[in-house]
Amino acid sequence: MSADAADRKRGTLAALAIFLERRSLVMLALGFAAGLPNLLIFDTLSLWLRDSGLSLKVISIFALATLAYSLKFLWAPLIDRTQVPGLTRLLGHRRSWMIVLQALLVLGLWLISGTDPARSLGMTAAFAVFVGFTSASQDIVIDAWRIEAADTERQGALAAAYQWGYRIAMIVAGAAPLLLADAFNWHVSYAVMAALMLVGVAGALGAPREKVHAIRPIHAEGTPSRPALEIPEWIGRLAVFALGAVVLGSGLAADATLLADGLRMLGLPAAGETVRAAWDMKPEGIYFQLVAVAAGLVVIVLAACPLPGARTRPGVYLSAALGDPLRDFFVRYRGVAALILALICLYRLSDFVLNIMNPFYADLGFTKTEIAEVRKVFGVVMSVIGVGLGGFAVARLGLVRALVIGAFAQPLSNLVFAWLAVAGADLPNLFIAIGVDNVASGFAGTCLIAYMSSLTTAGFTATQYALFSSLYALPGKLVASQSGRIVEGSAANADAGGMFSGLKAMFAGMPPEAYASAAEKSGATPAALGAGYVVFFFYSALVGVAAIVLAFMVAARQSPSKPSAS
Fold this sequence. Notes:
Number of helices: 28
Oligomer: single chain
Shape: globular
């Protein structure tokens, strides 16, 4: 064996060995602890509510319990800057927060297990919101520990381990509570789920202590303390902050229930119904939601800004807590920060636009059972493999190379669906298409997580990562809203003899049932609808070109300055 081959073998074995390190095994447990409460309140709880005789309208409102996941960057600075008395000295900053939040999650799920939604719906809802907020806060801490406990080359493996644990939790939270509810009742089911959160507690206690956490100082020197004036100012600022959070969250969650109910409580029921109707418009509602996101951010910034011409402690503290992490990022990545943010926003775009895949499979002629078995079982397995390959690539090839490969993998994998659209409803073809797409998606997702992790700095880890993870899906919401229009518009163009009409010849040999029922709904011929899907999948690949270009530009130009010492 040559020296080069021996070096490559050692490098491969070293990259694989990272997955067996203590930190990676801990991340499996922490990923499980993060995924379990999420699905229990977002999905499984809805079946309990339905069994209790509640309407679908009431059940859908419970989705707001997970709103905290979209807004977690707003209180991440508090977790960055606040110590847990007693525990921080013993366990370290991040692990002490983990233990506290996991204890609260055990309590919250246990309290839900003791409620009866049919008799005390308000109490069940309050506990669900509590679990949602606490679980989102746990996510902040777990991400921060993962970033601070390992170097960059290990971030891919840790991100992969986290996602594996998360997926295991989703399987457990999706199946075990239902089996327990059938065998016993929902109260026993959720009590057992509360006990399963001890897996996360074991992970936190077994985790290596992260590096010493340095809390960044807030410089309020020279600003006199005036409690009589500061208390009303704090109340006013926090009220405006909460208003901004409601508006922002309503946009991010694509649900205007909270905003509409707030307007109704203010005596403006008509305005509330107008907002709700605007959110529900198809597809124009997405634009109202994005306006709400922008407006909410503006209101939050105003709540944190210092008063004009007056330096006050509330203004200093809020502006520093929210503004310093952003300033630190732009200082460290001066000249390339905008490119980095654009890359984060666009990196998964070609994946996010594939929001019409179940209709596509059905239109092609696959049965619901076939779709469920291939997508939800085989697809999950292939996604797990892709996640692992992403972690291995980061460790073996380096973060930047893996990131560039991931940028190529996503759009190229979408072209497999264009082939499937022409090949027809053959089950092996569906296995191939979903397998390729899920491997590519898992690979790219892991690379992006590792990359965003590398952008944070000590003292601001939780806040910066929470901001990045909230940011990256926003453009996808806007572009994905047009997916159905592109398919049907391209089909109409093909039927009218337009530029896509030549694609209809590709479907001459298709079985008569392919696209037939769907074509009636779309007002197009089956061959034209097939052509519309082919155009869409090529479009979904083309939107990924921007991420490829940005990945190369960032790889060439990114050279962060030293972290600020403020």
